[in-house]
Structures are given as C-alpha cells and as structure tokens.
Amino acid sequence: MALNDGMIERVFSGVQxxxxxxxxxxxxxxxKFVDLQQKFDSCLYCVVDMHAITVWQDPAELTKNIxxxxxxxxxxxxDPKKHIIFNQSQVSGHAELAWIFxxxxxxxxxxxxxxxxxxxxxxxxxxxxxxxxxxxxxxxxILLYRATHVPVGEDQKQHLELARDIAQKFNKxxxxxxxxxxxxxxxxxxxxxxxxxxxTRVMSLKDGxxxxxxxxxxxxxxxxxxxxxxxxxxxxxxxxxDPDGLPSEEKGLEGRAEARxxxxxxxxxxxxxxxxxxxxxxxxxxxxFKPALSELAVAKMKPIGDEMNRLxxxxxxxxxxxxxxxxRAREISQPVMKAVKGIVGFI
Length: 347
Ligand code: AQP
Fold this sequence. Notes:
By secondary structure, this protein is mostly helical. The protein has two domains: 11-200 and 315-344, Rossmann fold, CATH 3.40.50; 219-309, Tyrosyl-Transfer RNA Synthetase. Helix content is 54%, strand content 6%. It has helices at residues 23-39, 49-52, 59-76, 93-102, 107-111, 114-120, 129-143, 157-173, 175-180, 229-238, 257-269, 274-281, 286-312, 315-344, and strands at 11-15, 43-47, 84-87, 149-151, 192-194. The protein has a three-stranded parallel sheet. Strands 4-5 form a two-stranded parallel sheet. The protein is globular. It binds adenosine-5'-tetraphosphate (AQP). Adenosine-5'-tetraphosphate (AQP) binds next to helix 1.
C-alpha cells in the first residue's frame, strides 16, 4: 500500500530501560499494550533506550535493562510475532525524524514541559541537552510510524500534547509539498493518548502525593515486577495508610491519598471499579484489606515475574526478538522517512 492511500490505525508506545520496572509501569502502560493488541492490527512496543541515556546509564546495566523491559512485555502477554517489539536505537529513523522535529518545535513549547523541570530540578544548567529535547524525540517515536493511538500513563499527557502540536505545525509549515505529494489530509495524524482506568497514575506506597517511580530512593515505595511474593507482601504491609478504616463510598476517600492509591491498585488488579472494591471492603480496617491486596498482587504479578526470569535466562532469544522487531519496524518507518525528506526538500 502506498503511504498516501490513507492513514491506518496504529498503536505505538515505549518504556525506558532504566531499571526497577514497577507496578505503575505495568498498570499504566504494559497491561494496556496487551489489551490493545486484540483491538488493533498494528502495534509497536518500543524499548526506548535512546530516551534512557538522557540521564547517565551504566552501559552493562543498560544492556541488561533493555532485555528486562523486552522480557516484561512478552511475560505480560504481548505477542512479538503478531505485533512488533524492538529497541529504539536499532531504527535510525527515530534520530533522523527527531532532528527535523527539533527544527519544527519551538523553545517556548519545551520550556513549558513539567517533566524536564522535575527531572532537572535545581541543576538545570547541568542537565543533558537530550533530557531537554526528550519530548521531541518522543514525538518522533510516535510519528515515525504515523501512529494514531498511544497508551501511556497520566504523566505523559503533556508530552503527547506536544507531539500533536509538532504534527500539526509540520503539516501546516509544509502544507504545499505535502499536498503535492498527494496527502490530502496532511502528512502526520494527530495521535490520540489512551489514558483511562483506575491506574493511570499509581502513587508511591510511601507518599500518596508522589507517583510510583523507578528512580525513587526507597525500594519500599514501589512494587517491582521482579519482586518475589514475600517482598510484595512486605511492601504492602509497610505501605503508608491513615488510622481510619475503608469508607463504603468513594467520597470517603477524599483527602486520603494513600488509602485511595491502595483501593485504586486493588480495583485495577481485579479489573473492577473503586465502587466495587468499597462495596466489598467498606467499613473494614487496613489490617484486613492489606492481606487481601497482597494476595491479589502476588496472584497477578508473580507469574509475570517468574516468566521474566525464565526469559532473562536466554538473552540470545531476547536479542533475536528485538532484531526481528527492528527489521519489521524499519519496513514501516523507511517509506515514512523517505516521504518526510522529500517534503522537507532534501535530495
Ligand atoms: N506511577 C505510574 N503510574 C501509571 N503509569 C506510569 N508510568 C510510569 N510511572 C507510572 C507509565 O509507564 C510508561 C513507561 O514509563 P517510562 O519508563 O517511559 O518513564 P517514566 O514515566 O519516567 O517512568 P518512571 O517509572 O516514573 O521513571 P522515573 O523514575 O525515571 O521517572 C509510561 O507510559 C508512563 O506514563
């Protein structure tokens, strides 16, 4: 099919190989990847290793973490034959398109990105240029495949909006050559963020005002996909709560961030709603709810952790899956990149 035969629906998303993959990454992103592969014919799930090096990564650890994220996708149920699993650095189009987008995006747009402000903190002058330009590379990741749907956690919403702005500005700046090349509705689609459900922002187990994160200093703040049953149970037991019991209605969770987080996690893991969870546990103390949550978390997460460990025992097999995925990702991206270069005026 020629590129200008129309836009096909396509899913793209990525996860950084920066270690400590956690329940937030699973519920906010990876689990959705699995659901979407039934609904869409074309899904690309990318281990975004070029994003990872925007902050220092030990090279040997990075290699291990790339394999670990790949293993997490497969262990969670993504089918690498039907869909595409690959690592970003094997497809050169990501870097090429990012450069063109660097020249489309405006400094003012990037200056508004809250994640850069959070990650660079007080040492902005010392942050890498890559960390600042990160959202532009993310726009390139998505648009290199002209992807239309992007499942992500709530924290990525602002970056998705930027990708939409970049797509729109590219279509406008190059409207004439785009039309001449036969693309009647613009060249890039406006990718839709898929952010829904009770686990779009899983919070730290130690502080309900912070999101669960790979880089948090305390390992007790997150449930890692690699945690064994005992560790999961210990972390839930030690999770911060308040002295009150669980309310029977959702409004009783207002102002109780830690309680709400645990209820949200239970609802997400059991594929139910906050209302259902409170119907079952309303009026009970955390001393009764936490063991139930532990049991559920272990039942859902341990098989994934076990399968990840099994896959990690054969790194050659994982590398083969990534190589095969990269070949198929290039097949989709090369005609897009060729068209973009023509539109921009490169020979
Ligand atoms: N706490 C979270 N709740 C729901 N979704 C989350 N995601 C991350 N944290 C949560 C989603 O997971 C996907 C992959 O994230 P990433 O690895 O690309 O980067 P991140 O958002 O920076 O992840 P971390 O774990 O929080 O790492 P650090 O500590 O480095 O900031 C994304 O879809 C993300 O929304």
